[in-house]
Amino acid sequence: MQAEELVERIRKVKQTLGRKLLILTHHYQRTEIVDLGDFRGDSFGLSKTAAESSEAHFIVFCGVHFMAESAAILAQPHQTVQIPDREAGCWMADMAGIDDVEKAWEELSSISGDGSLVPIVYMNSDALLKAFCGRHGGAVCTSSNADVAVGWGFTVGQKVLFFPDQHLGRNVGNQMGLKPDEMIVWNPKKPLGGNTPADIERARLVLWDGYCLVHTRFEVEHIRRMREKYPEAKIVVHPECTQEVVALSDACGSTSYIVNYVKNAPQGTTIIIGTEINLIHRLALRNPDKKVLELHRSLCPNMFRINLTNLLWTLENLGKVNVVTVPEWVKADALIALDRMLRLPSKSK
């Protein structure tokens, strides 16, 4: 089918079901998918929307699998969550497995002492890891509220185990004023994560050795080149970038932060962005009074798996295909960690 026919059929399904259907679209989706969604946002905003949408019977999550999984954890009994492509995963999420995390927890606790360590898991993770945090007094976070979540962790424990993205965790630690030797990286393939007992005792923030392939493509050299070409420009990047890239940028924040940064910038501003290319293209189209440029081209192929064809197929098979479910024993513990995230105080604007 041509794109026009696909869009028309999708709109007919939406019109027929009304508020019984909720389509959530992440900022990194293609523009044609975002235009068909009921809500767009980052993983934090969409998680809240899923939790609050009691009228919806069918929630179709246009994002990657861990996001739909989180929506399924938060969903009410009458709701079904589906994703247009089950293969839309996340490389970063796959970098932390439950067996490795449990082993790290045991090793860290044997040195730090029981009760001193608080786990904070990034939304980009499997439900089993969210459940692990629920069982061990921890919380989930997103790039929007990672600093708030880590700050909360330090109020209930002496150390925070942050996983699976080391760069988001380190940027939060830098923002909070932690010293370099108070942050260590945990490599699950090495004894004690590649650290000494003294390193672990001294550390306040233990960072899992994981990263985002989209945001670690941005390099210091990209910033230097763009500074030379556009000396008047503002550069804003995502906190999954390396600390070296963040340090040379003018601003750093979540996808929602970047959207608002562009929206609120004065007319005529040149803004160079280090994040997923679909969002940058859309920001350029929707802010024609500003010059919006990419720091470097970086596409998330998993987000790109969602298209008009598989979205229509899902909508025409509601409750039947690509249903995302979480076992009740996992859901119960994961819900505790997600609820803790949703109860964290909002940051001042």
For the structure shown, list the relevant keywords:
349 residues; alpha/beta; Rossmann fold; 3 domains; 5-stranded parallel beta sheet; 4-stranded parallel beta sheet; globular
How would you describe what is shown here?
The protein has helices at about 5-15, 30-35, 45-50, 65-75, 90-95, 100-110, 125-135, 145-155, 165-175, 195-200, 220-230, 245, 255-265, 275-285, 310-315, 330-340, and strands at about 20-25, 40, 60, 80, 115-120, 140, 160-165, 185, 205-210, 235, 250, 270-275, 290-295. The strands form three sheets. The chain has a five-stranded parallel β-sheet, with helices on both faces. Strands 2-1-3-4 form a four-stranded parallel β-sheet, with helices on both faces. Helix 3 packs parallel to helix 4 (about 65-75) and helix 7 (about 125-135) packs across helix 16 (about 330-340). The mean pLDDT is about 95. The protein is of the alpha/beta class and about 350 residues long. The chain has three domains: about 5-90 and about 305-320, 3-Layer(aba) Sandwich (Rossmann fold); about 95-210 and about 335-340, Rossmann fold (3-Layer(aba) Sandwich); about 215-295, NadA-like (Rossmann fold). It has 16 helices and 13 strands. Helix content is about 45%, strand content about 15%. The longest helix has 15 residues, at about 5-15.
